[in-house]
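In the previous chapter we treated chains in isolation. Here, by contrast, the input contains two separate entities that must be folded as one system, with a combined length of 244 residues.
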Amino acid sequence: MTTAWITIFVLFLGTALSKAAGPLTTGSRAPSGRALDVTRLVAPAILAGLVAYETFTAGGGFAFDARVAGLAAAGAALAARLPMIAVIILAAAATALTRAIA
Amino acid sequence: MNARWLPMGFAVGPFLSRRPLFRAAQAQALVDASFALSSRGDGTYDRGILFGATLPQFFAWSGGTALGVLGGHVLADPSSLGLDAIFPAFFLVLLAGEVRGRGPLAAALLGAGIALALMPFAPPGVPVLAASAAALIGLRRS
């Protein structure tokens, strides 16, 4: 039990510090044009990394499983301009269906 | 995995309020969704949207976690319902809102490529952190 709480505390501290590091060092000066050219791309770069990571990892390594069908369904639903909740439900449904068949 | 807050913190840093400790406290409101929503697409970030988007998510996330702990045993196997596909789909929705024009698209493709390339051997969290380096292509065109 103590080990779990120590882990939780260390994670909490690490998260808080990594969130605070940027704001504490950047100051509130208006960033330059070049800096803005980079920061505007941080969101798409990280989100794409998260999509790839959450789709293709299992047990700390690369995995190709039914989640790929879910991601494809989500992509199709987005292309059809369906609302967010529909995109997510369809992704889960496609993954569940693929697992049920396989 | 939580190292991904580092680049996000540097991106939103200049748009928080003045005093250092207060800025560090405000930065704790960073979550993936509010970060994405507060991004105006031109490199600036809207502090109001950052807080506004985090607050409801905080309650939904905490409530959902409590529900899962208390009632999770009802579901024999969450993966049979495809619940593990929810996170990739959620991030894809957020990503779709960000990819306007060539620069963001290139950054997204490169970011995904970096994450995929590192995945087989890098420790957890490193692929996503490294993906943020794709934003550096913004330097090229100016």
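Residues 1-74 of chain B form one domain. The radius of gyration of chain B is 17 Å. Compare these points with the single-chain example from earlier in the chapter.
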